[in-house]
Amino acid sequence: MKFSRLVPLVFVLFLVAAVLTALSAYQLAALPAAVPTAARWLFLATLAVYATQRRSLTFWIVVSMFVGAEIGHDYPTVAVNLKVLSDVFLRLVKTIIAPLVFATLVVGIAGHANLKQVGKMGLKALVYFEIITTFALFIGLAAINLTKAGVGVSQSGAAAEAEKLQTVEQTTSDIILHIFPENIAKSIAEGQVLQVVIFAIIFAIGLAMVHDKHRRPMLTFAESLSEVMFKFTNVVMFFAPLGVGGALAYTVGKMGFAPLLNAFQLLLTLYGALIAFLLLVLLPVALLMRIPVKRFVQAIAEPVSIAFATTSSEAALPRAMEAMESIGVPRRIVAFVMPTGYSFNLDGTTLYLSLAAVFVAQAAGIELSLGQQLVMVFTLMLTSKGVAGVPRASLVILLATVASFNLPSWPVFIILGIDALMDMARTAVNVIGNCLATAVVARWEGEFVDNYYAPEVTALAEPDSELAHQAH
């Protein structure tokens, strides 16, 4: 069958499967259980055939998400065991992060003699981060106060989730100390991206200050290391569909599709607020800074899909860095802004924390004034720095913070029931926000190459300096 003819067939099969599943679920028609199941698998088989003709890794990731969800629904016992595929993929990706961040930052900073310019870029990036995350905070507060998703929660549902979290008390001193590494090997082993960033920045500044005969060999090594790690990423990403499918199968197999009513309301509130944030904040910023929106969306489709399915910002970081290079953001800006943004520009996590904190108060029947809400969510925003890529770290921080504000902890365990689904959305928005931040800073610095275009995200070439000069 021709490639073009499969498109309407896939769409029709999807509608048929959806209608049959709805009729069976709501008992609107006396259908054998095997009928909607067979319809769904026929749709998935046709979608897989379509994917083989497209030969797109991004599309295969989408297919694997559907297949994983179906396996989780039909064979939950088997699906829970498929988590090993996701764990293997995440382990492989985590081996990339530290050497990639270190190498690209060293080249980006030490490769340019003008350290003053690097400092200006860092200041601009931090200002942008704080402005955007503040917008995210207020949108989250507005959404939860509008929907009041936590009002009327039954405390009996809290005991349904047996999984427990360890509360972590964090003082201001702890937060500050957490930024700085005491042992770089320990930071790498523990996946402390912010500490690796700080070490790489100081190392690069020191390297830029030494004589050229000492600087050049280390720069050559760092350049070679970054290129090898990008190629390493390409190899690992071939395993992405299996890892993503395993993650979705595990999530659906463990949770199913029927969370508690209030938790579902909170989930809808979060997704609605995140969509509003994308449309009301990030899209106007992109248009204002003259970012090519269509090319930007095409470039980030794959890393955002990976982030959504695996709920790990780390899993999407290498591909996201490549994606921004592919649309004309210089590597030195990508290398500096994106890893830093993963600690200071957590748009989705900030919005989620503002929602969740007020949800806890609503569920407990405690009225909080706007001032009290602001103090609590600003505290959460501060304590969340540097937690990107750490599974459920935001939930642990939420539990610790509500305890410090004398709120009960049991509503947090209701959130835990749907945290995987919420984590998908907030992680995807974190990645989108950080990708946009690199493009904005590049435009702000006057180094965004408008006429640079690489049709494949795997194109790793640095925008040619003469091309960049002509573009400006």
UniProtKB/TrEMBL annotation:
Transmembrane regions: 31-50, 57-76, 96-115, 127-146, 193-211, 232-252, 264-288, 351-375, 395-418
Swiss-Prot/TrEMBL keywords: Cell membrane, Membrane, Symport, Transmembrane, Transmembrane helix, Transport
Topology within the bilayer: Multi-pass membrane protein
Gene3D superfamilies from the UniProt entry: Sodium:dicarboxylate symporter
Record bears the keyword Membrane: yes
Subcellular location: Cell membrane
Name recorded for this polypeptide: Glutamate/aspartate:proton symporter GltP
Natural source organism: Hymenobacter cavernae
Higher taxonomy: Bacteria, Pseudomonadati, Bacteroidota, Cytophagia, Cytophagales
Gene that specifies this protein: gltP
